Structures are given as structure tokens and as C-alpha cells.
Amino acid sequence: MGIDDRLLTVAGLVPKNAKVADIGTDHAYLPIYLRSNNIASKVIACDISPGPLAVAEKNIVKSGICGVTTRLCNGLDGVDSSEVDTVVIAGMGGEMITQIIARADWLRSDTYSLILQPMSSAVELRQFLCDNGFAVETECAVFSNRRIYSVMKVFYSGEVLQADPVFLYLGKLLDNITEQALIYIKRQKKLISQRVKMLETVKRKRAEYLTLCEVLNEIDKILLRNDGSCR
Questions:
Q1: What gap in Å lies between CA 60 and CA 65, rounded to an integer?
Q2: 91-127, pLDDT tens digit by residue?
């Protein structure tokens, strides 16, 4: 059972022999892959909807893999802190991811690794992490199914950070600027440029306008150093 490059990238950040909760598992493709390749020692495949979970159960049985169980629950509400050491939340909006993390107080411990892959609102997710003592250990970009995604590995440090605007938009992709990271950066530049254009004449948004202009300036410098252009 194959998985796409997005989920392969997620799987690549899961620690060896991890005990994993896969939140929003859908068809359980990731849990099956993690156990088939002896990456995780066990996986709890969680979903809020009975329909996708039923499909997941059929796929698990069909795969013949042991060590994957399913659980009907909202986020991590049905998972005990003692059951896992790694939490994967992939394929949903950044704001939904923040809500799931916020409800699970036990994640505020450096015992746990979080692998996060937002489909949208990555800026809001990074802001939440900074505000709540979570640190991004590593981050990478992946191009899959004609879309560019960011995947981040996070842990709880307890240190609340003042978020740098460039970090909010680019995360830790600057630590290792790959070809796919450049695609992500250029995509962010396009989105920020559109927002700046909207704010040009909005006086009450002047602070945001100036901040985004500074971010665009930094992005241009990054692109010139790494891509030879600022297109």
C-alpha cells in the first residue's frame, strides 16, 4: 500500500521504535507504512469520524500488519499520555492542529515528539508554538500532488519565544535550503506580496504592512543567495 511524498516525509521524521498516535488517520496509510517498515513499535490510528476509521480498520486487516490499533476520538482526547511518545498530526489546518495540542496538556513535556504537517495556516501554527513553549527542532518542505507542504518536528522546551516574522512565514526551512524549500519560500513570497498589496492603503493595518515588507525584503535576500534571483 503506497503513500505519497507528503506522508513519506512525515514518516521520515518519526523516531525509530516510536510509540505513535496518528491523529486524523483517515485510511491508516501512515500507520501501516510505519509498522511495515519497522519504524514504529506500535501505532494508534485515531480519527473523529466512524466512516474513515472503518476504512482504516479494513486496510489494517488487509495489510496483515500487527501493532496498529484504531481509536474513535476527537484529536488526542481518547489517548492516554502513557500510551505514546510521538504524536503525528498531518493533513489538517494549522488552527485545528493548535486546538488539538492545546487540549492535551500532557504534551507539555519534552518526553514527546510532535510531527506536524499543516495544510493551511502554518503561520498561525508557528505563532502558537512560540507562544506556548514548543520549539521546532527541524522542518522540511515537500512537493507532493502539485502542492508544497511544510513538515515540522516539534518538542516542548517550556521557553516562550518572541516570534521572528521571518520564522513565522518560513519556519526552520532556512536551516537547510533545499530545492523544495525554495519552492515553499517562493510560494510564501507570492502570498505575502498579495497581502502587502491589499494593505497598501489600509491605515489601521500599517504595522502589519511594514512587517510584511520587511519579510519580503529578507526573502529576496534569501533567494538571491540561494537561487540567484528574487523572482
A1: 6
A2: 999 999 999 999 999 999 999 999 999 999 999 999 9
